[in-house]
Amino acid sequence: MSSKCGHTYSTTTDASDTICERDPWRGHDECIWHADDGGKPFDELKRERKDDPEKLDGAILRDVNSGSVNNSQARLLRKGETPKEGFKVGTSPIDFSNCSLKNATFENSRIMSTIFDGADLSGATFKNSDLHSSFFNDANLSDVKFNNSSFDSSEFEGACLNFASLCKSHFHRVDFEDASLTGLSVDRSHIARSNFKNCSLDGARISDVTAYEVNIESTIAVGMEISDSDFKRSSIEGLSGERIEIRDSNFIGSTFIGNTFDISELSRVDFTGADVSNSIFFESSMDDIDFSSASLHNAEFKKTKLNDIQLSNRTEFGEKCIFEKNADTAIEEDSFVNLALMRIPPIYMAFSGESHKEISKLEDSAYVYGEYQRILQENALFEEAREYRIREKESWRKLAILRSEFVK
Ligand SMILES: [Zn+2]
C-alpha cells in the first residue's frame, strides 16, 4: 500500500498539482474521494471536506446517503453564517463551494441540499441519484451527464450547462436564471415549473419533456429543437432565434407573447387557447398548427408558409393586423403622406425618402389579410373571412391613393 493516494488528475496545466497527496482511506490505495468504492459514510466525507476550496477531480460518490438534510442550514451556510444551536432537524449539508470536481461521479446516492456554488463539475456524471434542493449557482456544469437523477427545487442561477445532457431526470421547480444552456440536451425528463430567464438555449435539443408551467423569458435559442414535449400553461415571452424547430408539441393555454422566430419550422404544434400576440414568425413554415381559441393580436407571419392551420370562431386576429397598424402610425407621423391621403396636391412638398415605408407596410398588410381569409375559409369561418376581405380592400385603397400621389 502506498503512503499517498496517488490519484492522477487527467488534465491540468499546473505540473505541481497532477497527483492527489491525500492519505489512503480504510485499506484502499486511494483517499476517501478517489477510492473506487461504494457506501462512503456521509459524515466522514463531510469531515474530510476542508473549509477551503479543494481539488477533487475524479471523486467518486457511490451509494452515499446523507439522510435528511436541513435545507435552512444549507441556505445559512451559503451566506457564510453558522447555523444556530437548536437546528436539530436533519443534518448539515456537504459544502463543495468553489471546489474543482471535474469528471466526478455521483451514483446511486441521495445527498440532499448539497452546495456546489461556483464549483467546477465539468464532465461529471450524476446517475440514479437524488440531489433535490441543491445549489449549483455559478457552477460550471458543461458536458455533465444527468441520468435518471432528481434535482427538484435546486438552483442553477448563472450556471453553465453547455452541452450537458439531462436524461430521464427530474428538474421540477428549478431556477436556471442567467444560465448558459448552449447545446443542452433534455430527453425524457421533467422540467415543469422551472424558470429559464435570460438564458441561452442555442442549439438546445428538447425531446419528450414534461414542461408544463415553465417560465421562459428574454432567452435566445438559435437552432433550438423541441419535439414531443408538453409546455401546457407556460409563460414564454421574449424568446428569439432563427432556425428553431418545434414538432409534435403543445403550448395549450400558454402565454407565448413577443417571441421572434426567423427561418423556423413548426409542425403539428397545438396552441389551443394560447396567447400568441406580438409574436413574429418570419420566413418560416407552419404546418398543421392548432390556433383554436388562440389570440393572434399583432402576430406577424411575414413570408411564412401557413399550411393546414386550425382556427375556431374564438381565434382572434384583432381588428387590424400589425402591418396596417404600423402603416397607419407612419402615415400619421409623415405629414407628406398624410396630406397625400387627404388628396391635397403635393405642390409645395419635396419628395420624402420615407414615403416608401408606408407602401411596403400596406402591401404586407394586404398580403396578411389575404392569408387570414385563406386559412379562415379553410376552417369554414366565412363570416370572419369576410371581415378581412374588407380590411384587405381598405389596404389596397390606401395603397392606391399613396401610389397615385407619388407618381405625380
Ligand atoms: Zn485522492
TrEMBL record:
| Source species | Natrinema soli
**Name of the protein described by the UniProt record:** Pentapeptide repeat-containing protein
Q: Which domain of life is it from?
A: Archaea
Q: What InterPro entries does the record point to?
A: 5peptide_repeat, Pentapeptide-BTB/POZ_domain
